[in-house]
Amino acid sequence: MEHYTNSLESARQLDKQDPLRSYRNRFFIPQHEGSDMVYFTGNSLGLEPKTTKEYLQQELNDWATFGVEGHFLAKNPWLSYHEILTDKTAKIVGALPSEVVMMNQLTVNLHLLMVSFYRPTKQRYKILCEAKAFPSDQYALQSQVKFHGFDPAEALVEVGPREGEYEIRHEDIYKAIEAHKDSLALVMIGGVNYFSGQVFDMKAITEAGHKAGAVVGFDLAHAAGNLELELHNWNVDFAAWCSYKYLNAGPGSVAGAFVHEKHHTQTDLPLFAGWWGHDKATRFKMDKEFRPIESVERWQLSNAPILSMAAYKASLDIFDEVGMHKLNEKSKKLTAYLEFVVTEINRQKNNCLEIITPKANRGCQISIVAHGHGKALYTKLIENGVIPDWREPNVIRCAPVPMYNSFEDIYRFGEILMRLL
């Protein structure tokens, strides 16, 4: 951090040196008093690509022109629309094309995958997860456990930070896996903790879970489009993620699912079936017997939500143009600069700010506790042209996203924060 300078001139110089600086111009930036807002909430809802309207309009035009025949005659035929997303999505999460599909919503996908991969017995029934995972994950895990007739208080093994800490130590995760290895059915953790921004070592956790005889899956809501992932090489069993955060696909947009290829032909896997998971060659013969596709597509239920997928495709094409490696390299620099600016302010303001995101394990996000200020500070930031994110009880989350945030954004944030403190 010592090579940074907290000045507008320095921030603008860093932006000039940024090879990805032009991509900011391909997104709509919310406005405040005639100027771009400092938008640090891409970890909650990504900004809209300027091409999204064009992509959506194409499908609306084809609907108007062809009606139902758009399934075959549209520029991007709707029957196979989800397939044009597969290769580029696979690159983002480090998977084979056969292992990735866009479908449904995140929690829906987690439930569908747990139908197949959480198969408790009297001996093995426990699920290991992070304490204070995102509430939707907690609800999903609790309801899955109850559905199978177990008590969540006994079946859910939660690993949390030690007293006085915010980071969950990996050694504590491994110890918990070892301690429950004879009764552990599933390890299901978020790739990035939504509250602290901590990134988990998914490769090592997968290895530890498998060694204990458990299945391993991840919620990648805060990881997809944020980190360089290698789901296939890490031997992860399954994963699911949303597309409206770092992937900029719009509010409530279509989600993604991953299932490792080793499971694609397992005939003993239970799953909830729907006709879009049926063998494509015979799908429209409307046979009574379900014949699953031998890929992750077997977990599909219904035909594709085309308008949602079109919005996703607008962002996906930009991601494919840039590549996750370049985005990750810029992300590291942006986040380090944000850490530097917050640290500089802290020195002048009696250490009232505490960064709780571990430096060694982070992506775009930095979570800050503003001691003695609380939510009032968050509200004042918005009133002054900054959009961060608030999480109870006392955390302001800031995510400088490499696709469209700049070093000048970070300087301006620091300048406003300093004034408000």
Brief characterization of the structure:
By secondary structure, the protein is an alpha/beta fold. It has helices at residues 8-16, 52-66, 70-73, 86-93, 106-117, 135-147, 152-155, 170-179, 202-211, 306-322, 324-348, 375-383, 407-420; strands spanning 31-32, 35-36, 38-39, 100-102, 126-130, 156-159, 184-190, 215-219, 238-241, 256-259, 353-355, 366-370, 386-387, 389-391, 395-398. The protein folds into two domains: 8-48 and 323-420, Alpha-Beta Complex (Aspartate Aminotransferase, domain 1); 56-322, Type I PLP-dependent aspartate aminotransferase-like (Major domain) (Aspartate Aminotransferase, domain 2), CATH 3.40.640.
How does this model look, in words?
This protein has 421 residues and is an alpha/beta fold. It folds into 2 domains: 8-48 and 323-420, Aspartate Aminotransferase, domain 1; 56-322, Type I PLP-dependent aspartate aminotransferase-like (Major domain) (Aspartate Aminotransferase, domain 2), CATH 3.40.640.10. Helix content is 36%, strand content 13%. It has 13 helices and 15 strands. The chain has helices spanning 8-16, 52-66, 70-73, 86-93, 106-117, 135-147, 152-155, 170-179, 202-211, 306-322, 324-348, 375-383, 407-420; strands at residues 31-32, 35-36, 38-39, 100-102, 126-130, 156-159, 184-190, 215-219, 238-241, 256-259, 353-355, 366-370, 386-387, 389-391, 395-398. The strands form 4 sheets. Strands 4-10-9-8-7-5-6 form a 7-stranded mixed β-sheet, with helices on both faces. Strand 7, helix 9 (202-211) and strand 8 form a beta-alpha-beta unit. Helix 1 packs antiparallel against helix 13 (407-420). The longest helix is centred in the C-terminal third of the chain and has 25 residues, at 324-348. The radius of gyration is 22 Å and the shape is globular. The mean pLDDT is 96.
